[in-house]
Amino acid sequence: MKELNGVIAACPPSGIRRFFDIAAEMDDVISLGVGEPDFVTPWRVREAGIYALENGFTTYTSNAGLLQLRELICADLASRYGADYVPDGECLITTGVSEGLDLALRVLLNPGDEVIVPEPCYVAYEPCVAFAGGVPVRVPTRWEDGFAVDAEVVAAAITPRTKAILIGSPANPTGAVQPRAALEALVRLAEQHDLYLVSDEIYDRLTYSGGHTCLGTLPGARERTVLLGGFSKAHAMTGWRVGWICAPRPVAELCVRVHQYTMLCAPHVSQLAAVEALSGPDDAVQSMVADYDRRRRVFVKGLREIGLDCPEPGGAFYAFPSIRRSGLDSETFAEQLLRTERVAVVPGSVFGPSGEGHVRCSYATALPLLEEALVRIDRFLGSL
Fold first, then answer.
1. What's CA 64's distance to the chain center, in Å?
2. Buried b vs exposed e over 2-20: b needs ≥16 C-beta within 10 Å?
3. CA quadruple 134, 140, 143, 146: dihedral, nearest 10
4. How would you class 337 by CB atoms within 10 Å of its CB: exposed for 0-12, middle for 13-18, buried for 19 or more?
5. Looking at its record, which EC class is this enzyme (predicted)?
6. Which of 56, 193, 307, 343 has the fewest CB atoms within 10 Å around its CB?
């Protein structure tokens, strides 16, 4: 048989899934590994989906998505951050942010173009760059600096083949929120070298200390920035698969072109549920964010009390403690913790070289389980 696609064949399976597979075969496991809200989608949003089904809204929508939803997204971005995007031509509804990332990279990149990816980063970033024909170029960040992206380090990685910088803030896996000054420095760098910026802002509402900086609103950024967002995290709508792209018209129109030949449109029912999520009261989101913040403070304090240095996560719902005092590498630490104490975490190494010496812990988990996990981790540390 002829060879299959070499780029895809060379891509390793997700480093996260292996630990989930082990945990699935065990009893009494406390999982701090899933990057998913533990809340159910708010009832009024579910009810809108039910109503849509009952009334037969089961057809395709336009390729770009329901205009009403695009109008609400653009209005929300304008209200929160002062962003200025036109619903008809600069906004596209995608099947989750994952598809949005794939579309953006396919539109921006020609074969061999390089994309700078600060790491530790979400596990899909580098494979998606490669699948789009690009070359991911890692640049490190340091936990001692709060995982802030250093523009000088990025500048040193730029070559004539560099096309874009891909960044997530608030970040998975670190919970880091990029300082406004760091983002402004990246915009200046992009202007200097004529680069695109791809900004994954799926966790924008989950910011606990200070406000979120929308990259596309910074001076000089709009014409070269692709904003990615969605409903999975703040609205607890992971399974509904609704995301969005806001970008300059030439980029957005080509994203629609790829989208119409592959996904066609996001699910009609899900889009109508998302309409309700944005048009109704915001109290459910505020309540969930407040609960995450309470868990964040308890869990990070607990990690520090049992002797694990942990940077303060300013956003998302992840803690990224250092496990260097254990003397174990991150994969060994995660595997032994799971097998001996039934606590599932994700090795930091799967998120890039800068993640080694850390593990990712999701605090999108009920507070009593977080407290029990701390007891078990403390006991595990004591056994080493």
1. 22
2. eeeeeeeeeeeeebbebbe
3. -70
4. buried
5. transferase
6. 56
